Amino acid sequence: MFPGYVDPKHDQEILLPDGWLNTGDVGYLTDDQRLVLTGRAKDLIVKSGHNINPADIEDVANAFPGVRISAAVGMPDAYAGEVPILYAVAAPGVQLDVCLLQRYLEEHVAEPPAKPKRVVLLDALPVTAVGKIVKNDLRDRAVVEKVRIEVERIFGATIAPIVAVAKDEKLNTVVRVEVLTGNAAAIQKLKEALEPLSQSYDVIARFA
Questions:
Q1: Does position 40 have pLDDT exceeding 80, yes or no?
Q2: Is pLDDT at 200 greater than 70 in this prediction?
Q3: Maximum Cα interatomic distance, the chain, rounded to a whole number of Å
Q4: Which among 89, 57, 74, 88 has a CA at the least distance from the CA of 146?
Q5: Cα–Cα dist 98/103, whole Å
Q6: Distance CA 147, CA 176 (A)
C-alpha cells in the first residue's frame, strides 16, 4: 500500500507484518463471501473487556416508533471503563418518552452489556458536511453527561456544573469542571469520583 508513516510509531497495528493494512473497519462475511461493513473499530464501546458494536443498539433504537435517528457511544465508567449511552432524535412532530424508549431497549437489545445505561434526547445529531455522524462530538458529550451525573449525585439536582472538554498536546482528553459551591468536602468527593476515569479532570470550586 505504502511504506509507512513519517513517524514509525503510527505504523504499529496499522501496517501488519504480512503486508496487510488494518483499515479499522468492522464487518462480517456472508455465506456467499460478501463483505458487509458495519462500523469502525474506534467506534466500538468497550465495557469490561466486552466489545460492543454501536449498531447493535442503534438498530434497535431506530425501530422504536418516533425515533428518527440515534447514535450510541461509550460513557466513562469507573468500573467498566465505559458503558453505552444512546443519543436519539425524534421524528418531526413526535414527543418521545425517554422512559419508554429506555424500557424498549432493555427488552430488545440482545446483549446485556450493550443495554444503554442512559438515553439522551437531542434536537439533532452532530454531522459532517456530508451527513456523517460525528461520534467524537458525542463522546465529548458523554463525558459531560458523566460529570453531570456525579455532580447531581453528590450536590443534588440544583447544581449545574460548567464542563469543558478538550485535548492536550498528546491528544488526551482533558476535562475542566467548575462547580458553584463552597462545600469543600463535596468537591473532594467529586474529585474522587472522577479520578478513576480514563480522562484527566480538573475540578474547581467557583464562588458566586
A1: no
A2: yes
A3: 66
A4: 74
A5: 9
A6: 10
- 158 three-class SS: coil
Cβ 163 vs Cβ 148: under 8 Å: yes
What b/e sequence results for 125-159 when a residue is b if at least 16 CB atoms lie within 10 Å of its CB, and e otherwise?
bbeeeeeebebebbbbbbbbbbbbebbeebbeeee
Domain with residue 48: its CATH number is 3.30.300.30
Domain extent for 63: 44-125
Length of the chain in terms of residues written: 208
| The C-alpha cell that represents 119 in the structure block | 438515553
Residue 45 CA to residue 53 CA, distance in Å, equals 7
Q: Are strands 50-52 and 67-77 parallel, antiparallel or unpaired?
A: unpaired
Cα distance between residue 202 and residue 163, in whole Å: 10
Answer yes or no: are the C-beta atoms of 22 and 13 closer than 8 Å: yes
Is the pTM here over 0.90, yes or no? Answer: no
Residues 113 and 171 in one domain: no
Which CATH number belongs to the domain containing residue 143 in this structure? Answer: 3.30.300
